[in-house]
Amino acid sequence: MNATPSSSDFILQVEHLSMKFGGLIAIGDLSFQARRGEITALIGPNGAGKTTVFNCITGFYKPSEGMITLNRKDGSSYLLERLPNHEIPARAKVARTFQNIRLFSGMTLLENLLVAQHNKLMKASGYTFLGLFGFSSYRQASAESIELAKHWLEKANLVDRADDPAGDLPYGAQRRLEIARAMCTGPELLCLDEPAAGLNPKESAALNELLNDIKDNTGTSILLIEHDMSVVMQISDHVVVLEYGRKISDGSPQSVRTDPRVIAAYLGVDDEEVETVLTEVGDEAVIEQLDTGPDSAHGPGSSASMMAGPVSDSVEHADQGERVTVSRGASKAAQVDARARAAVASKPVKPVAAAKPASPAPAKPTGRSPTPKPRGGRK
Which range marks the domain in which residue 134 is found? Predict the structure, then answer.
C-alpha cells in the first residue's frame, strides 16, 4: 500500500488562490501541488491566467485570497504571499524567467551569470571595502562565483562564447543563458515562463536536455508555463490545466491529454462539436467520457468566488504580455460539463403504465331472469 504523501513531499502548495482586478477575477479558487524534484507544467489557452499565477508565486502580485506555501529541503516553510517580494528569491529560494528575455545584452555571458551572484559577492566584499583591498575571503568568493558561472555555461552548451556579448547570441541560446543565470542563484524552485516560445525543434531539444539535467542532477524542482505541447508531454511529470483562471484538469501528461475538458478548451469548439472532433481523431476512450458527469475534484469548490451574471471585462499585463478577457459562457470546458449534465438529464425514463379506467363490475347472478325492457307502445 502506498503511503499518503506528506507536505514535505511537495515543494509548492497553492491553496484556494484568487486574484481579482477590480470586477475581474483572473484566478478563481485555484489549488494544486508541485512535487519536489519533479517538473510541473502549468498550461492552458491564452488568457487562462498562467502568468498571473506565476506573478503571485514570485511576489509581483499579492493575491486577493489564498495561501502559497514553499517547503524548503531544510524543513523550513514560507508563506510566499506574506513575504516581501525581494525576500522570495533570497529566503525561499525561488527563481524565475519571463516570457520576454531579460538579459543584459551589452554584458558578456560570464558577466550575466556573475550578476546573478551579486548578493553573495557583495557580502564577501564587506559591501565594497574588503573587495577594494583584495582580502582573501573576497578573492575566494569571486573565484567560486566564476567557477559556478562556467559550470552553468557548460551545462547550457555556451562555454565557448563566455566572453561574447549576450545580445549576439541566437534566440534559443539566449533562452538557455537566462535559465543558466537563474540557476546561479541556487534556487530550490525554478519558475520558467514559456521557455520554449519561439524555438525551433533543435533548440527545443537542447532546452529539454538542459531542463532534465537540472531535474536529475541538482534536485531543483521546476514549475513551467508552456504552450509547446511536445515539450510539455516529453519532460513533465505533472500537468495542471487552467481555463479562465479555473482549474479544469490536474494529473499526469497522459491523463490530461485525453481529458475532454482540456480538448474543448484548446480547440475552442462548442460543446456539440466536441464529440465530432474526438471521433475524427479516433479516441473512443475519450468519447465515452463525454457521457459521464462532471468531475468536481477538478473544478472550484462550493466556496469558489467565480463570476455570476453577465460580466465582460479585460485586464492587460503589459510587462508579461498577457491579456485576460472573460465573458459569461466563454468556458469551453464548462460547456463540456454542461453537455455531460444534459446528457444524464435527457436519458429516457421508462414510462409507468397509466392506470386503465375501471370497467363496470359484472352483475352478480341472482337466480332470476332479467326483466325484459318494454318495447313499442304495448305493455
Answer: 106-169+177-182
